[in-house]
């Protein structure tokens, strides 16, 4: 592993300020799910893995939703490769992608259904796909007064 540092303190500070949770795409999807009556938990720790969380979790039906940023998670369509300190960034981003794959494998082996979406995907489309899977795996929708969904 390369022990190089970010190219400058300014770059390091800027990157550390990037939102890790409650990003605009994530919030948009959550609002749509909530408006449709779905209930979920946020930033749930991945069982058996330290320092890893599920962005949107349907814990009863074991559905884990991740909203991945194109830069940080290596979107095949939008990922960019920084030119300054390129080797350090390539290793860092490769580790992120390897960690994503490891987290997915771990959750699937634990009986979870894992859904991963890119930040550029249309929130309405994402919410529809999440809702369909959550329903298929055991719904988490709020019940009305008569116990009906």
TrEMBL record:
Keywords: DNA damage, DNA repair, Endonuclease, Hydrolase, Nuclease. Pfam families: DUF559, Vsr. GO terms for molecular function: endonuclease activity. Residues 1-10 have a biased composition (Polar residues). Gene3D superfamilies: VSR Endonuclease. The keyword Hydrolase applies. SUPFAM superfamilies: Restriction endonuclease-like. Belongs to the Vsr family. InterPro entries: DNA_mismatch_endonuc_vsr (IPR004603), DUF559 (IPR007569), Restrct_endonuc-II-like (IPR011335). It comes from the Bacteria. Residues 1-24 are annotated as: Disordered. CDD domains: Vsr. The lineage of its organism: Bacteria, Bacillati, Actinomycetota, Actinomycetes, Kitasatosporales. This is Very short patch repair endonuclease. Residues 95-133 form the DUF559 domain.
